Amino acid sequence: MDVRVDLDYARALDEADELAHYREEFVLDEPDLTYLNGNSLGRAPKRTLIRMQRALTQEWGQRLIRAWSEGWYDAPVTIGSKIAQLIGARADECIVADSTSVNFFKLVLAALRMLRARGSRRNKIVTDDLNFPSDLYILQGIGDLLEGGLRLEVVKSPDGISVPHEAIEAAIDEDTALVTLSHTAFKSGFTYDIPRVTKAAHEAGALVLWDVSHSVGALPIQLSDCRADLAVGCTYKYLNGGPGSPAFLYIRKDLQPELGNPITGWFGQRVPFEFALDYEPARDLRRFLSGTPSILSLIAIEPSVDLMLKAGIERLRAKSVAQTEYLIALWQAVLEPLGFELASPRDSERRGSHVSLAHPEGLRIDRALVERMKIVPDFRAPDNIRMGLAPLYTSYGDIHHAVMQLRTVVTERLYEKYSTEMPTVT
Ligand SMILES: *Cc1c(COP(=O)(O)O)cnc(C)c1O
């Protein structure tokens, strides 16, 4: 990419950006704030504020319990079917429920139990050390629950940035029950080739479970096409669902009748409002609901998903690639000489929508950015400053500004004033 480092060039890129007007769809009450954390907590869409006002005053306030049959009861399915379009799934293959961690727990156990029921004795799970810790914790917890009946193989990244596909393929054998990976790694932004890994797992007779939390809404995902078995994902990152908004899960259509939810709550019962004493699973994906959904948080997801569908995931991906390329070009010209290293893949095909820059003073530089420069990236220990570019609202001007301020923080040694103590939430 032939990039100039001057501000006029950034402005010209913004002017040529056909998605630029979507920025106006978001609450921007602090115009001098540069927000580069949309991969951790997306911005609030204005439409969501209006939607929530209606949910509170009309639905809850006036309609009360009648609102359950006026949209609330079906919301996990209707909103799930919209998210399905973003992950290359059929409408009836995706439902919104619980948190990503809880969905991950349900699907891993369901997959292992299904294999047992089919007579399989496979007991190995393949994952990697770039995976999101919660997923690894859940796998460890399931290992404890099964009292030693499970073997976890954690493939190591040679450089902390990416994992060669060959290393995953080599770890999959005839004892492998499940391969589960984050599609896009939360720290480096490394992105797996879903069809390739899925094919390798299937050829060895194993199932795959993708965690697409750091991909959904930023890059196209094709789950059905390559017959991926299972997936989970988060809605408060690029999907802008709001803090703690419920997650989604995907199960390939033909597997649904065979998979049982290990948390057999009444919302997954075939007819919950009959209040029968015995559990009988719903015939469709609703069986993967457990208790009453968090309705207010759930309906907050929808306006942003609608915006994304309108913008189009292919166009969002094209902008995201152009923006991460631009950021990397600026890093090379301005920040590399100051001791910043690129801690993300160089090849855009293997990269999601965030870029990590490592610096020995990363934590204090991050503090200086947040507290003095009004730039909000993310920090991931030990030294990664993570810049999330959300193509729906991040501008080229934001990226340019962040890089220039990073330069100032380092050349003027502004970070020296800040503590090396880790804050509770980063
Ligand atoms: C953010 C994220 C999660 C979040 O899980 P929660 O249960 O919502 O806290 C899970 N997996 C990945 C890969 C993530 O990036």
Task: Give an account of the 3D structure.
There is one protein chain. This protein is α/β, with parallel strands linked by helices and 426 residues long. Helices cover 36% and strands 13% of the residues. The chain has helices at 7-16, 46-63, 75-86, 100-117, 133-145, 165-171, 194-203, 295-299, 302-311, 313-335, 362-372, 396-411; strands at residues 34-35, 94-97, 124-128, 151-155, 176-182, 207-211, 230-233, 247-251, 341-342, 354-358, 375-376, 378-380, 384-388. The strands form 3 sheets. The chain has a 7-stranded mixed beta sheet with strand order 2-8-7-6-5-3-4, sandwiched between helices. Strand 5, helix 7 (194-203) and strand 6 form a beta-alpha-beta unit. Helix 1 packs antiparallel against helix 12 (396-411). The longest helix has 23 residues, at 313-335. The mean pLDDT is 96. It binds pyridoxal-5'-phosphate (PLP). Pyridoxal-5'-phosphate (PLP) binds next to helix 4 and helix 5.
Provide the descriptors you would attach to this structure in a database record:
binds pyridoxal-5'-phosphate, 12 helices, alpha/beta, seven-stranded mixed beta sheet, 426 residues, single chain
Explain the layout of strands and helices.
Layout: H1 7-16, E1 34-35, H2 46-63, H3 75-86, E2 94-97, H4 100-117, E3 124-128, H5 133-145, E4 151-155, H6 165-171, E5 176-182, H7 194-203, E6 207-211, E7 230-233, E8 247-251, H8 295-299, H9 302-311, H10 313-335, E9 341-342, E10 354-358, H11 362-372, E11 375-376, E12 378-380, E13 384-388, H12 396-411
Helix pairs in contact: 1-12, 3-9, 4-5, 10-12
The structure holds pyridoxal-5'-phosphate.
